[in-house]
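Work package 3, deliverable 3.1, input record:
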Amino acid sequence: MPKAFTPKVITANALLEGDAVWLTDDDRWSRDIAEAELLTDEAHAELRLLEASARQSEISGAYLADAQEGEAGPEPVHFREAFRTRGPSNYPHGKQTRA
Amino acid sequence: MYKYNDFDAAFVRERVAQFRGQVERRIDGSLTEDEFKPLRLMNGLYLQLHAYMLRVAVPYGTLNSAQMRQLAMIADRWDKGYGHFTTRQNIQYNWPELRDVPDILDALADVEMHAIQTSGNTIRNVTADHFAGAAADEIADPRPYAELLRQWSTDHPEFQFLPRKFKIAVTGAEADRAVIRAHDIGLQLVRNDAGEIGFRVLVGGGLGRTPMIGKVLTDYLPVADLLPYCEAIVSVYNLLGRRDNKYKARIKITVHENGIDQIRALVDERFARIRAEFSGVDQALLAEIQTAFAPPAFKTAETDGYEAARLANPAFRSWSDTNLTAHKADGYAIVSVSIKKHGATPGDATSDQMRALADIAETYGHDELRISHEQNVILPHVHQSDLPAVYAALRAADLATANIGLASDIIACPGMDYCALATARSIPIAQQIATRFDELKLEHEVGPLKIKISGCINACGHHHVGHIGILGLDRAGVENYQITLGGDGSEDAAIGERAGPGFSADEIIPAIERLVLGYLDLREDASETFLQAYRRLGAGPFKAVLYPDKEGARDAA
């Protein structure tokens, strides 16, 4: 039996800065995962990924990442995706400085 | 130092202009990422977790003060005021914006630097012994040969799409400070019975997921045959190397699968066919390059002040005990500047520190700097009489850490703090280990110890050849760290053996501490290093201290 689909968000890197971005349900690229559209249906997720990947002049490397519903919106599941919401741990650089 | 000729300068400028056009077309949407990616990689531009990363080549690790100042300027103007020195003697900028990269490349070209072939399946930056041209134990300066190889390999039409990346390292001494046995081609300058200089050529070394020690292809290659022979090796690999599986595409696998004798036969056959095509132009070029690497005009001066300063200042004495190496010229020393202050990120230098290093090199170091594969900066030519002043200037720039070759002089890749390939973080582990050993005040007593950390199996942090290697992995969604023991990147190269089950991020620092304290109990006396003790005793007693209540203890029993 195929593995059950787990909720996802679409994420990528912004074309100009390379900063992590997430696709919202109103088709914006947000710098905040909490604004992302949480995708719970596999077919819809694949369709949204196709649409996202077509936006080549805005982003690079769109992919589906596991996420879960949190109090303020979607949250990362894996530590790699959690780091992408913050920035590196050795300097206060990246998103954490804008928090 | 080698100076660009008109051809070099025009070539580099043209590449920058091409890339500027490619960036413009990517930004206006006429190039997709799939189309743009190979173009940006050819120019050293990666896309990582949080931003782009630009990897700039420091050919054979050699820089002058003007170049170092330009690297500092770039860090301030287009990045976040620092740069990261890597295990391949390069410098990486972690935060450039796409639109600025062509300007950065032009600024590099202004000081005869570039980022060409710092990525992609090409021949990468040729690395060399960071003490080249200065070491007391070398046969000859390996850098002219490295420069010849750089010119030959740059934009070589046959080798732009190899099965996989290809790394060459050169050393001029028997003591291997360039890890040549872990390179696709390792070259060591040797003398034959007639006293002539040539190369011992090793092939098929590499780390990564399948670590291999390089095998000897020939014990003596005349200098004049260097380029045709290397061309024969790479073209044999280009045809024979596997393109069906990325993980089996490096030459180490080609050598392993075909056997060194078969590879040697193919290389010899190819060499015999192409040898005549090298009409001697390469040797004329080499002669010209050699003049650019003439030793500096070494001075003579009294060294009494140095000895007096050592007696008067214990901190200076400690630093000069650990951070100096014997120089071939009388009265001179090689200074290793630690970029491993306890608790700081290994290999990261601020723009202020880069400028301080440039000033010191200009004033006291014949204008030369080196980047070591161990992520430190070398002042290769400092007269002993200038050492107290150099030390004072380094202290003022927070660069006087006395830990070269000790437990806190850790190699660490950027890991999951930056790298898109990483499976776990490396930097915080290195920071915590160094901080812990600083608290224990034990590292000088422990003596020579190489700890190397990689954040994934690709092994940029050289963990396989660390006396203690640490490999960060993702185990069921949690960072986990595996320890290997007994690795060695020197002329006695060895791949470390896995000690046992991995440790969590919380457990790894105490585990390393147990290991090092355990070694102090196990060694015969203070002169027996960690590696020597490991080789004498085997893994058993070390596993026993690492896993006090587990199977390791049973193994040892």
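Residues 411-556 of chain B form a domain with the Sulfite Reductase Hemoprotein; domain 1 fold (CATH 3.30.413.10).
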